[in-house]
Amino acid sequence: AGGSTDSTARLIAQSLANALGQPFVVENRPGAGGTIGHEAVAKAAPDGYTLLFSAAGPLVVTPHTYPKLSYEPIKGFEPIKLVATAPLLFVVNSNFKGNSVADVIKQAQTAPGKLTYGSFGNGSAAHLAGELFKSLGKIDISHVPYKGSAPALTDLISGKIDMMFDVLVTALPHVKTGRLRPLAITSPQRASLLPDVPTMSEAGVAGFDAGTWFGLLAPAGVDRQVVETLSRALDTILQRPDLRDTLVQQGAVVAGGTPDAFKRFFAAEYDKWGKVVKAAGISSQ
Predict the structure, then answer these.
(1) pLDDT tens digits, residue range 233-280?
(2) 110 burial via Cβ count (<10 Å: 0-12, 13-18, 19+)
């Protein structure tokens, strides 16, 4: 409760309630990397009255880190709408001796394993972004997991760790005060909130694309008419200037698209991050 997934879910739920004249109740089911809540939806009756609003991690990362799941991550859900994407910001401590991604890579190559990067949990989007950076940059930096973004940022600001990939909404206030220095954004396009900060690809790490995203799904087997009704309602909702502005201020970008497009995106993301998890040897055991 209170996290980015929860707040975005409540924003969408209220908008759907207004558009369809039906109440939408948000129920948080935390635990086990999101698998508890996802299992509940996957096993629910596919009648359109139980839906899943999820971030990327529990859908495309966590399933690869747990050896056994009681549901099929891909086959267990029917994608409805990719609601928004949210890039991460690559930041370093303000005293870090380097002003670019190239400087980080050079230092990491000079002293393998010495530089440290924090994340808001093992297997989190921040962790996976760091592993992708290691792979594409051909470097060795050490991962330091934390129980959330706040403690990781505290240690980054104090200099206990060197760098971090974090969501914009929590990193930006510290960038504005000068306590953190932004080096790059992880999406293919620059962020409107930080137009002068280059993308990772522009900064020299070609093909880098990481972050999180939010989507609405239903249990597999739900009637196609339910999917289409919710998809059309969301198409209208996501065009509202007030909702788009709210998401932008949270560091997100409105996505949209058809249910079939979301299904293809979901499958591609599942395969992509599965390979990263396997290569990095990440496990939730």
Answers:
(1) 999 999 999 999 999 888 898 999 999 999 999 999 999 999 999 988
(2) exposed
